[in-house]
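About this split. The held-out portion is used to measure sequence recovery: a designer receives only the structure tokens and must propose an amino acid at every position. Recovery is the fraction of positions where the proposal matches the reference. Here is one held-out target exactly as it appears in the evaluation file.
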């Protein structure tokens, strides 16, 4: 990405910061966060305000513009990229380095006492707001909401907000009608003594109403809000987006669902507060703007119950998730079989190969699109965890270097996310050792037995032990939840050394990734990622009737045995691998043959030969 010239933009922004037509009072600093009004992980182009003002296009970062300075905070993944993309108007604040001040500390040090800091309250979570306001107050400064977004005013060619068609997802995929979901939600409202809940997360709205859209790349969601009371449900959406089929599907539910324009939400809340008695539930992840519409004494701030409803999959969703992973594996077996030959010929690059993989997935039933941007990476590029191939860095896939491919698909019956690391030539001893230790972590998670509702971060060490034993480690988490034809990263649980504050503990029916890795900076990267389902475990005892759980692996793509040093595996691990490979052969082999991919089938058989 070329460096962006930002001088004129900063001049325009600074003049708006003093213009009381746009700000409630003159401000001395304006914060530009990365997010959208729904606190989405992936955002639409029209919401890429931080990238617009700073030039830095990475996924994480916060920009702050004062009367005289502009600063950008981002983490270690992006130091280099940020410095390259930003001009010298911008100071780079390296998050994760102990000497780097936080945004709040920096503001309180840089600005005078009595200064005023502004931010668009729709773009930040209420908890974030509370913490920053408190810290600034300690320094004699004030945080104020600036509801008219100042970047939108100076952004002349800002892309339009997407208004893509919203379609129904049939009960044969969702397993539960909207009426049933509303009924469960209303039970939660009664438990919490809430008269109404406001839903702001896009995937929660899509889940609740059995609808899907495509406003945000890779995420089958649409811009919307929802509100549910004891007898009514409201969907706030751009009305032109709702297809006839979507409207019909809501009507057919036989429950009263009212559809209102997206912009109506604030008026609606105001009116409801006047007529409704009782408390209003807002998610702890909703924006400050939405949260503060409800007076504090009437507000319940707590994780949305839909987050948990969505995380625990029903029988139909479980079947769909398992079935789409088998079809996804067909595409991946075809892919790796093809790539092995291409690597010898040296005819493909990271990008061209990734494009071919998408073509293969498109042939599979129910495929809608990729679930995230494919990480197709060779050699040193694979050591960058969040690498995305770009024309400037695109590398040839050869027999000389390790190839790492992390990709996934959105299918109407589920979402996939799988990583395989392969060497098409002769791996070094050290590469084999690292790969085998990563695999030991994968198996350790896949086979562990744990009490019901243990929090995911208790399991994280299991995935790292074989690496820690020899002084190695990896910098990312071990597992994230996945949606059912929804976002590929889904809370509220996860497996990481970090604890997830909202983690309700692991429950039967949840799906998570199991993805340890190892990255040798500048040389190679290894990651093996499977999706696992939380299932009941058979144990000889059952202490205090807690119920014990384990995982069932549902990704069925061969794990390259060439990269394994069998002397590092225990008998139990060898047995696991062999039986895993038999399952791959049985489940995926049949479908490969049915679809007429004889050569890929032969490859699958070869790659699943037992070891040891
Ligand atoms: Zn992945
Ligand atoms: Zn993943």
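Reference sequence for scoring:
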């Amino acid at each position: 990405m070329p460096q962006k010239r930002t001088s004129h933009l900063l001049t325009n922004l600074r003049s708006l910061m003093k213009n009381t037509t746009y700000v409630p009072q003159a401000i001395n600093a304006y914060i530009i966060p990365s997010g959208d009004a729904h606190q989405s992980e992936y955002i639409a182009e029209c919401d890429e305000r931080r990238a617009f003002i700073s030039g830095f296009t990475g996924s994480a970062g916060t920009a702050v513009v004062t009367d005289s300075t502009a600063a950008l905070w981002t983490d270690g993944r992006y130091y280099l990229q940020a410095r390259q993309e930003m001009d010298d108007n911008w100071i780079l604040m390296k998050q994760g380095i102990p000497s780097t001040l936080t945004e709040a500390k920096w503001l309180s040090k840089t600005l005078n006492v009595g200064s005023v800091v502004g931010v668009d309250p729709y773009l930040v979570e209420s908890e974030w707001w509370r913490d920053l306001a408190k810290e600034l107050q300690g320094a004699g400064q004030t945080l104020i909401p600036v509801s008219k977004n100042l970047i939108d005013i100076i952004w002349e060619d800002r892309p339009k907000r997407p208004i893509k068609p919203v379609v129904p997802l049939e009960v044969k995929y969702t397993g539960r009608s909207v009426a049933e979901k509303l009924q469960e939600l209303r039970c939660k409202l009664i438990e919490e003594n809430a008269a109404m809940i406001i839903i702001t997360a896009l995937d929660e709205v899509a889940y609740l109403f059995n609808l899907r859209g495509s406003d945000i790349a890779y995420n089958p969601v649409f811009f919307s809000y929802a509100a549910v009371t004891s007898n009514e449900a409201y969907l706030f959406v751009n009305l032109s987006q709702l297809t006839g089929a979507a409207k019909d599907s809501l009507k057919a539910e036989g429950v009263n669902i009212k559809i209102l324009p997206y912009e109506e939400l604030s008026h609606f809340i105001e009116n409801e507060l006047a007529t409704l008695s009782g408390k209003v539930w807002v998610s702890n992840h909703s924006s400050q703007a939405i949260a503060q519409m409800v007076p504090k004494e009437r507000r319940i701030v707590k994780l949305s119950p839909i987050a948990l409803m969505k995380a625990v999959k029903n029988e139909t969703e479980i079947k769909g998730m398992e079935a789409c992973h088998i079809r996804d594996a067909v595409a991946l077996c075809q892919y790796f079989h093809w790539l092995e030959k291409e690597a010898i010929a040296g005819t493909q690059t990271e990008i061209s190969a990734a494009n071919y993989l998408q073509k293969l997935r498109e042939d599979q039933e129910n495929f809608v699109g990729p679930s995230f941007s494919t990480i197709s990476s060779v050699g040193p590029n694979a050591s960058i965890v969040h690498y995305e191939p770009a024309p400037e860095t695109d590398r040839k896939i050869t027999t000389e270097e390790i190839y790492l491919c992390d990709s996934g698909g959105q299918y109407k019956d589920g979402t996939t996310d799988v990583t395989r690391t392969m060497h098409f030539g002769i791996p070094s001893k050290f590469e084999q050792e690292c790969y085998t230790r990563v695999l030991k972590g994968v198996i350790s998670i896949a086979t562990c037995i744990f009490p019901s509702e243990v929090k995911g971060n208790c399991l994280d060490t299991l995935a790292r032990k074989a690496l820690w034993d020899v002084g190695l480690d990896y910098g990312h988490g071990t597992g994230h939840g996945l949606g059912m034809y929804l976002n590929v990263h889904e809370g509220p649980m996860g497996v990481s050394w970090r604890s997830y504050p909202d983690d309700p503990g692991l429950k039967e029916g949840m799906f998570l990734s199991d993805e340890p890795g190892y990255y040798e900076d500048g040389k190679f990267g290894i990651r093996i990622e499977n999706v696992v389902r939380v299932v009941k475990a058979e144990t000889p005892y059952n202490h205090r009737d807690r119920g014990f759980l384990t995982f069932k692996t549902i990704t069925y793509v061969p794990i390259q045995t060439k990269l394994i040093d069998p002397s590092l595996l225990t008998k139990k691990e060898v047995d696991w691998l062999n039986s895993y490979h038999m399952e791959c052969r049985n489940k995926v082999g049949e479908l490969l043959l049915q679809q007429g991919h004889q050569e890929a089938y032969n490859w699958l058989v070869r790659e699943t030969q037992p070891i040891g």
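Annotator remark: Residues 406, 417, 419, 529 surround zinc ion (ligand 1) (CB under 6 Å).
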